[in-house]
Amino acid sequence: MGPRAWAIRNTYVGGYASRCFLPRRCCSKVPNGLPTEHAALTEPLAVGVHAVEKGALKGDEAPLVVGCGPVGLAVIAALRLKNIRPIVAADFSAKRRELAVKMGADIVVDPAKEDPYSKARPSQACRGVRMRRRAGSDPATFEKAPRDARIVVVGVCMEHDTIEPMFGIVKELSLQFVLAIRQRNSPRSLRLLAEGQVDAPSLITAKVGPAA
């Protein structure tokens, strides 16, 4: 097994290394003039683009994004690019709600004060795009989602988790899990950033350098 294969298996970590091994298929050419910090957003944006594709939302559906971290914001950006509106976003953090608006959310909700599920159009099924790691860590998703809703779980749970399926059975909910990205979405996401179709500066909240 060569070093390139080892790199994919994280034998060589190197998140802050100046160079690392990567197979050619994992590389995309950065367009001239695109800042490196913007190009670095390709991966999280590609996750959001892939999640929206797997969700297969239509123009008459009301998406609800639960959690507005980096990937949640990428999902909002991907929904906006598809012109699926209104986009409802929920997060306990005021800063993240502010960023959600910058990325294209039409309605932002503080779950500590109001129910985000009630903000979706009542005549349509609320499509929950969940950004939490655990499918079952928030039973309210199953309990409050309307009948026939589709829930897309974006994230990886590294621990055992449980769900209570009764709400899903009674409401006939659809549960879609999403695995990271599809390779075809990376060049597309890089192009979206290069063309300015995504507000890259708003996604950068801080910069961290290598340890001394």
Describe the structure in your own words.
The protein is an alpha/beta fold and 212 residues long. It contains nine helices and six strands. The protein has a six-stranded parallel sheet, covered by helices on one side. Helix 5 (94-103) links the parallel strand 2 and strand 3. Helix 3 (42-55) packs across helix 4 (70-81) and helix 3 packs across helix 8. Residues 1-8 and 122-137 have low confidence and may be disordered.
Summarize this entry quickly:
This protein has 212 residues and is α/β, with parallel strands linked by helices. The protein has helices at residues 3-8, 36-39, 42-55, 70-81, 94-103, 140-144, 166-171, 185-194, 200-203; strands at residues 62-66, 88-90, 107-109, 126-130, 150-154, 174-178. The chain is built from nine helices and six strands; from the N terminus they run αααβαβαββαβαβαα.
Keywords for this entry:
212 residues; 6-stranded parallel sheet; single chain; 6 strands; 33% helix; globular; alpha/beta; disordered N terminus
